[in-house]
Amino acid sequence: MPAVPSSIIEPIWEQFRALIPPVVDEHPLGCHRPRVADRVVFDKLIQVLVLGCAYVKIADASCSATTLRTRRDEWIDAGVFAELEQLCLLAYDKMIGLDLANLVVDGCIVKAPCGGEAAGRSPVDRGKQGTKRSLLVDGTGIPLGAVVAGANRHDSPLLRPTLETLRRFDDLPERITVHLDAGYDSTVTRDLLAELGCEHQIASKGIPAPIQASTRWVVERTNSWHNRGFKKLAYCTEVRTRVIDAFIALANAIIIVRRLIREGWTRYRWTGRPHRKP
Fold it and tell me: Helix, strand, or coil here: 201?
C-alpha cells in the first residue's frame, strides 16, 4: 500500500520532477555506476516522511541510505522543496482561494530525541529534547509557513519570523486579522501587530475560551494533520534545521494538494474525477 494515495502523489511528483535541476556528468571516463532514478528517491523520501522510519530501514537494493541523504541535500540546495510548496499554494489560491484576511498562528511541540540545531528542553516532556513548530495558516487551515525552533522557546518571540513567511505572496489584503491564543497576550505582541499593520484577536490570560468557539481551531487541525499524517514531523530525528524545513514543506505540499482535490471536487469537472468526494 503506498504511503500517499496516487491521486495526490502523482501531480506532486510531476511538479517536483519539473523543478529538479539537470545533472551535469563530470566524470572524466564516463564509467561510473548508473544514477538512481529520481522517482525512486522521491518515493522513499515520502515513505520516510509518512512512516517516520530511518533511512537505513527504508533502503534496499534499489537505493541506499547514503543516496537518499545525498539526493535530499542536493534538492534542498536547489530549493526544490520550498519551490514545490510555493507552487502548490499559488495553485490553491488560483483555483480555490486562500483566506489571507484571517490568519492563525500557534506553536506545536514534538519530540526530538536526537537533539540538533532546532532542539531544546521541552517544558511539557520532563525537560527532554524537543522541537517547536510555529505554524501560520489561513482562515481555513491551509499551511502558509512555519518556523522551527527549540522547544524551550516561547511562542511570542517566534511570531515575527512566522508572519514574515507571508512575503511569499505578492498581493495581500488591506486588512489582515491575526488570531492568537492566550500565550501571545502581551503588549509586545500587540505592538508588533500594530507595527505590521495587522488587526488582532487575542485570547485573554486567565479567561477560559473554548477553541471551538473561536477561529483558532483550524491551526490545531493542521497541527494534527502534521503529527498524525507524517510521523517524521511528530518524532523529529533530524538534527539540521534545513532538513526539517524541507520535510515540513513536502508535508505542506501534500496537505495543500489533498485539500485542493477535495475542495475542487464540488467546483470543477475533470478527466478522472472521482465519483465520490475524497
Answer: strand
Torsion of CA 232, 38, 254, 259, to 10 degrees: -170
Q: Which three cell numbers stand for residue 203?
A: 485570547
Where are the extended beta strands (E) located within the chain? 102-111, 120-121, 129-137, 143-150, 177-180, 199-202
Q: Do 132 and 158 meet the contact criterion of CB atoms below 8 Å apart?
A: yes
Q: Which grid coordinates belong to 226?
A: 502534521
> Of all helices (H) and strands (E), which one includes residue 275?
none
**Beta strands 143-150; 129-137: pairing state:** antiparallel
Ordered by where they begin, the domains of the chain are 1-23+33-95+240-278 (no CATH), 99-238 (3.30.420.10)
- Asked whether the beta carbons of 51 and 231 are under 8 A apart, the reply is yes
- Separation of alpha carbons 42 and 109, rounded Å: 27
Distance CA 178, CA 189 (A): 11
Q: Which three cell numbers stand for residue 243?
A: 532538513
The 3-state DSSP class for residue 180 equals strand
The C-alpha cell that represents 39 in the structure block: 522517482
Confirm if 144 and 136 have CB atoms less than 8 A apart.
Answer: yes
Q: Give tens-digit pLDDT for 220-256.
A: 999 999 999 999 999 999 999 999 999 999 999 999 9
Nearest-CA neighbor of 238 among 149, 143, 115, 124?
115
pTM attached to this predicted model = 0.93
Query: Of all helices (H) and strands (E), which one includes residue 97?
Result: none
CB 200, CB 193: distance < 8 Å: yes
- Residue 133 C-alpha cell reads as 513548530
pLDDT in tens, 156-168: 899 999 999 999 9
